[in-house]
Amino acid sequence: MSDDEGGRTNLRMPEDDEVFAEVTDMLGANRVRVRCADGEERTARIPGRMQKRIWIREGDVVLVEPWDWQDEKADVVWRYEKSEADQLRDEGHIQ
Fold first, then answer.
1. Which of 29, 57, 31, 26 is CA-nearest to residue 44?
2. Residue 59: CB partners within 8 Å, gap ≥ 6?
3. In percent, how much of the chain has pLDDT > 90?
4. Which domains does the chain show, CATH number per domain?
5. Which residue numbers delimit the S1-like domain (predicted)?
6. Ranges of the chain with pLDDT below 70
7. DSSP states of 29-92 as a string?
8. How many CA atoms lie within 13 A of 67 on its CB side?
9. What is the mean pLDDT of the chain?
10. Which residues lie across from 73 on neighbouring strands?
């Protein structure tokens, strides 16, 4: 179903310890700076399984899983397409 039809797609939502975040800066070495929905700025790591398959750019909306032993760091779990990010904004999940 395309966006032109006005249909809502089911999106991956955060699980227990995951939060929405927006990529603010590319740091290199498979790391990005993200601003999380809980107000924290974190350095997030892009795992190997995502590096070659999914391109992450500044401004992208992602799901991150903060590290429980070091709160200023996180792992990127999922990246939303632009249309999916717009849908999340429309539904009030993110600003």
1. 31
2. 22, 23
3. 41
4. 13-90 (2.40.50.140)
5. 7-81
6. 1-9
7. TTEEEEEETTS-EEEEE--HHHHTT----TT-EEEEEE-SS-TTEEEEEEE--HHHHHHHHHTT
8. 12
9. 85
10. 43
